[in-house]
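Team,

Forwarding the record for the chain on the shared tracking sheet. I've put the sequence and predicted structure together so nobody has to dig through attachments.
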Amino acid sequence: TKAADDTKAADDTKAADDTKAADDTKAADDTKAADDTKAADDTKAADDTKAADDTKTTAAQKIITDAAQAKLDAAQKIIDDAAQDKLKVAAEKTKTEAETAAKKERELTDDEKKALGVLKSDWKDIDAALAAKERVMLVTMKQEIAKGIAEGVAAVRAEFAQAIAPLASSTAETAKDKFATEVKAAHADAYELLPEVEAWILEQPAFLQPGYNQVLDSGTAAETNALLTVFKGDTGRAEAGKKDDNVVDESAVKAARVAKEAERKKKLESQEGVKGKSSVKTTGVDADDFDGAFNEAAAIQ
């Protein structure tokens, strides 16, 4: 029993020693970790302080540099302006001297004036011939100048036309693509239906056909979509009770109808016999009642 107690006491002592050693090791590790953390914090604080100082230094240097550059720019502008003024004065002086010299060259000397006077009095025929020759020379000179100007203008126009040709072509292609995109967004089968639409137009009342054909030839995307909507409604392409994604709303149809109706009225009124009231009725709508006839022909079923 005593031996067992001694053994247990020895184990407890060893366990206590092991625990103390572990605690001492942990305490040392914690102390080291705290020291490392403090060192890292101190290093970061020093780096942050240095970065802040560097930023302040950089900002100060920039202010100094900008101020110096501004002074240099101002000085350079003064120099440039002075040089420009000198060049301007020199150019004006040169121009004045050139004009004076040219005027002097055009003026006749006293000897030349005397010789011309003798020519006009003693050699009238020769003087008249020389005057005629001078007039021909002036006319020829004016023609040559006009020809040169015309050729120069033509060359500039040709060069300009050549320069803008790619831009004009690109603009036309862009407009064409935009038109096709807008039409297909409303009617994906628009181009496949074109032959059928053309045949359908031939079956419509004569006074509607010009307007429809004009929409196909040069109408806007909205007008084209409205015409396709009318065509599909008239031919039953849109299923009853089912929304057709290719059909634009009624406002588009109305907009196209209003835009074209005024033009149709103007054309029809200029034709013989249109202004009077017709006594013939075909489908219950007066032939001169454009609103009723259009609505009947273009009604969406």
